[in-house]
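Q: I'm teaching a short session on how sequence maps to structure, and I want students to see two examples side by side rather than one. Could you give me a first protein with its sequence written out and its structure tokens following it? Keep the formatting plain so it prints cleanly on a handout.
A: Of course. Example one:
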Amino acid sequence: MDQMIRMRGTGGVDQLEVVSCEPQAPGPGEVRIRHQAIGVNFIDIYHRIGLYPLAPLPAVLGVEGAGVVEAVGDDVADLAVGDRIVYAGAPVGAYATTRLLPRVRAILVPDHISPRIAAASMLKGLTAHMLFTRTYPVNAESTVLIHAAAGGLGAMLVRWSKHLGARVIGTAGSARKAQTAKMHGADHVIVGRNADIVSGIAALTDGRGVDFAIDGIGGDMLLKTLACVRPFGTVASMGQAAGPIPPISVDQLGPRRSLSLARPSIMAYSADPNTYLAASEELIAVMQAGVVAEIGNEYTLAEAGRAQTDLEGGRTTGSVLLIP
């Protein structure tokens, strides 16, 4: 008997329950995947607490996973039982032993990339692709600020930035996490949750500021991040792990600062089939070159609540996985 983690309603992890279920038969344009690894991301927490509402409830969380094709719909001719695939994005439903998946979401995985690495890297890799190609074109002349550089997304962003030749300045909440960020390739790391990052960035850039800053922390941090970027630079606000973002007026962006503030969504980016396919192909190529996410913590499927609690509480590094 298979299992899924079902969310009864919005709220705490007590809303998650383990439910037994039978594998479903795929319909037209669908495949059934038996998961070997499932990614846990902050967007799952945002779904659970109702920041990004899911309807109808109950619902199964999770937006990325990797595994083996177990069955295909009658009209699916380009995938076969036994193929290794990975996916990310909508529709949600990854927290399960097996699930049905639209064929267009299934991306073939080369044999030498393990399902754990594939599941850990897919959503974060697509996010990096979106940020570095669509939001700001990072290259060897760029200086990039990456918050939470030892975290799952942060580590992938550091590695991809260095793959592009950029100079990377990270932030980390502790000396241990700072060391992890440097292992991923960060050139400099500003340490401490209450560190004066504005002064730190000014010192590291001779007062110029960074070209591109990626802020997944939210709360009061975004205003500090804006102060770390050079005139005509770009800030990407990617989440609010530290709480809601205070209102920002256009006067805080310019004209003196002349900043661009982006609020890109990986779910929106990956929703377009052509973008998703092209970005996935580029991601697989980058992964084959060695740019992959760091796996930090693994839990059983039934421990999904604990995995989310640890991620939300900052007790994880690297990518967080559920192993069915």
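Q: Perfect. Now a second example for contrast.
A: Example two:
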Amino acid sequence: MGASFSLHLLGSSRRMQQFMQQLPNAVFLVNQEGRIVEANDRLLHVTGYQHEELVSKPFSVVLPYRGSMEQLYRELLKKEAETEQPVEVEWRDKQGKSGKTPAMIMVQQADQPLYMVHLFQLTKEIDYTLSQRFLQKLTNETSLGVVILNEQAKIVEISHMACKLLGIERPQVMNRHIDQVFAGIPEEHRLIKRELLEGVKLHNVATTWTNNKQRYELIVDANTLQDEAGKIVGAYVLFKDITNLRSFEQKIERNERLAMIGQIAAGTAHEIRNPLTSIKGFLQMFLQSFSDNGMMRERSYTEIMLTEINRINSLVSEFLLLSKPRDVQYSLVDLNIIFEEIMPIVESQALLHGIEVKFASRSKLPMVVGDNELLKQVFINICKNGIEAMGGAGTLHISHHIAPEGDKVSIDIRDTGPGIPVYIIDKIFDPFFTTKEEGTGLGLSVCQKIIHDIGGQIRVSSKGYGTTFHILLPYL
């Protein structure tokens, strides 16, 4: 009676990969035509093949057998019946080296049969010693990024965390040269470089890495691996993701700066406003007098001075918002009503600049906890920034989604402008930092403080074309 198995994972190649990785043996899957359709890391590790070098190739590249897979399967079944134990087969690695190992083939009986080939003793190389067991644990289950290179600069081991941080798939990089893995990235910008094999060492080096999905702050260690004679036979790279720690440190630094500015604001704002009030009153009197006497040039000068006085007052008002402590009035706020009230303002501002506004979340927003008027200020300010960033053409998109954490709603305001350069994106929330000739540099700082005070966050993303502000608010 033939050995068979029931396989219900074929709907997802990723589930099939995960299933085969959990098996303790070197395993590969062969279709009816005798071609390999999947192989686990253990087989790749021992044979030296890359994943794509095996998939779609005849099974004979691993098992040098002249007949079909069905014939081999039947032959092994017959011998197993005679010996009552797995039968040895010949296997061959990428370099052409051959050996023998006990094997067992299981078949899925279906219209299109699949053969799962287990090669038992090929796992001894990676399971034999305690240190190798530790390496397996290190690469599979820890939060540490681990990459091991051989002397040809090929990746012979890589941890799951390293794959996540680098934005790569493990089967696609195993036994592949780093020049292939990081093709298109200049050598000086690579996280893993060939110079590591020349004896270059790294210890607690802080760096950043951006894959297609996310930017990471990393601490990197690297060194060479030598044999008994001291010859370099490989290298390793270890890196730890400290993105959250760096973000926390930056938040503390920003809060300290805001606290200092707040103390200055609380002590000086009223002292500035008192004389401004007097100056503004006298200027208004002069304005009336100049008008009555037909002194139009003097009137125009006075109007300019009044405009500047109002600008100073506006700056002082923003300054006061940064002072601490500030008593925020918490209440239930209907975001739909807020946007109904501010959209005419946003749309009229956009019209003046030739900008189109698309509001995808009309009447769909949840209730949040916050301050009604301050939230209006935040949304108007960020929409205004987006409109001005686009110049005379573009679209302002307003939408929302539930944040991955599940406890906040994200109001997303996206422009189609030129984007924010990488070298200043970390500074845009700093007080007094601005790229506008007439800007005060306090607008985004004030917005950030308002949102933080109600337990929310502001995140920004910009990838060279367009910028999106994500305003995350606790919702009900």
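Q: What should students look for in example two?
A: Point them to this: The first strand starts at residue 26 and ends at 30. Also worth mentioning: Residues 246-321 form one domain.
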